[in-house]
Write a structure and sequence with these properties.
Layout lengths: L1 E2 L9 E2 L12 H13 L7 E5 L5 H8 L4 E5 L3 H14 L4 E4 L3 H6 L7 E6 L7 H11 L3 E12 L11 E9 L2 E8 L7
Parallel strand pairs: 3-4, 3-6, 4-5, 6-7
Antiparallel strand pairs: 1-2, 7-9, 8-9
EC number: 2.1.1.171
Protein name: 16S rRNA (Guanine(966)-N(2))-methyltransferase RsmD
InterPro entries: RNA_MeTrfase_RsmD, SAM-dependent_MTases_sf
Length: 190
């Protein structure tokens, strides 16, 4: 079991999917991540995509802390079922769960850009070329100045960012590294 750190559902426990296929972000790393996101003022009323959602801990934390809409994308149907239960148990109605592969969801880009924050925690065994493809597919979803946060093993290389996505910098937490980047179309400088 894991828990929501803060916000409307703060302190409440969430169920994690059974088996070794899911690696929930630790409470300590999540607390550090969301402290930074709140400092950057990107959570309140944000539209969030949680890719490779696993237990849903990142997206649920964003919803608890004030995100207006959160789409949690998880290909594993058992994990998606657990996320749906967590959403219902926590009463986070602004959350939508999509039990589909990330690439399939992203390939169906919306007619307008709405996403302000992307949280992606792919399994560590996802190859860099697959992650590069996912990052390219997410761009049509992003509003200007959208923030992307990619969680990887500290042994993984920096993700390959698409054009118009600029690295802000990594944050390391033991075995975990969070890569922060911003969508700045037409070469705009932050």
């Amino acid at each position: 079991m894991s828990r929501i750190i803060a916000g409307t559902a703060g302190g409440r426990r969430i169920e994690t999917p059974p088996g070794a296929g899911t690696r929930p972000t630790t409470d300590r790393v999540r607390e550090a991540l969301f402290s930074r996101l709140e400092h950057l003022e990107v959570l309140e009323d944000a539209v969030v995509l949680d890719l490779y959602a696993g237990s849903g801990a990142l997206g649920l934390e964003a919803a608890s802390r004030g995100a207006a809409a959160v789409t949690l994308v998880e290909a594993d149907r058992r994990a998606a079922t657990v996320i749906r239960r967590n959403v219902a148990d926590l009463g986070l109605r602004q959350c939508q769960v999509r039990a589909e592969p990330v690439e399939r969801v992203l390939a169906s880009a919306p007619s307008e850009r709405t996403v302000e924050l992307v949280l992606a925690d792919p399994p560590y065994d996802v190859e860099e070329t697959s992650l590069e493809r996912v990052l390219a597919l997410v761009v049509p979803w992003l509003v200007q100045d959208a923030l992307l946060v990619i969680e990887r093993s500290s042994r993984s290389p920096e993700p390959t960012w698409p054009a118009d996505v600029e690295l802000i910098g990594p944050r390391r937490y033991g075995e975990t590294v969070m890569w922060f980047a911003e969508y700045l179309p037409e070469g705009e400088i932050a």
